[in-house]
Amino acid sequence: MTDPQDTHFARIWALLRGALAPPPGLGRIALALALGVLCHAVFAAAVLAMILAMAFGMSESLGRVPWPWAALANAALVLQFPIVHSLLLTRRGGRLLSRLGAHGGTLATTTYAIIASVQLFVLFAFWTPSGIIWWRAEGMALWLILLGYGASWLFLVKASWDAGAEVQSGALGWMSLMADRRPRFPDMPKTGTFRVIRQPIYLAFALTTWLVPVWTPDQLLLALSLTTYCVAAPVLKERRFRARYGARFDRYAARTPYMVPRFARSERSPDEPSSAQ
């Protein structure tokens, strides 16, 4: 049974109320506001850089490293995101984030979002293009592909909302600090897109790299690299979920496919025990 206080809107409304009427503490409030502005500004810049760079097949990015050194620079840009992103999601990474300042634990989600956004912005904005264009969509094909490209981004937004928008955007940390309370994390996601597959965010992120109107060697390398990460990385995430949620996650995983939807699904709730148990 769903706790009415644990819905997406209820959690975000509670965060907003706390942030709009914070307890006294000028230094704490100033820090929270500064990090909130930084977090969402960098987040927006990263998303915009990704959308624009891939819309041109990575052929118009700002990197100007001379070749052949550009190949090494681009490889470093591709690798830095999954490596750091995954390390920060480990227990050791979480402890590191929690130790960053007096409010490190409260601000961990905000700090994580800032780091991830900077990584993505650097990757997409400072890629050095090869200058080779294999194919560029035109006419009706262009509009159809752009429709699919836009749909993949909307899918990513919906999946992020279903997972907990306050966590995915980094708002949970700085808004909790504003309210001078411990962050309240959402429960294990199992509704919306998570009713269909267990890893909709990773699937949506991978789709954005393939549904593009311009194809270059750069875009192919990026799509292959990030798709490999999107397929492999959730295995570690699910290991953490099993440790945290135990049998609840096992039942959910037994009924919900990893990343490829089933067309004939059980009507039982992901938390409902099997009758055979």
TrEMBL record:
GO cellular component term, pick one: membrane
Segments passing through the bilayer: 29-55, 67-88, 100-127, 133-156
Membrane topology, record value: Multi-pass membrane protein
Keyword Signal on entry: no
InterPro entries hit by this protein: Nurim-like
Domain of life: Bacteria
Tagged with keyword Cell cycle: no
Cellular compartment(s): Membrane
Family of this protein: Belongs to the nurim family.
Major subcellular location class: membrane
Keywords: Membrane, Transmembrane, Transmembrane helix
Record protein name field: Methanethiol S-methyltransferase
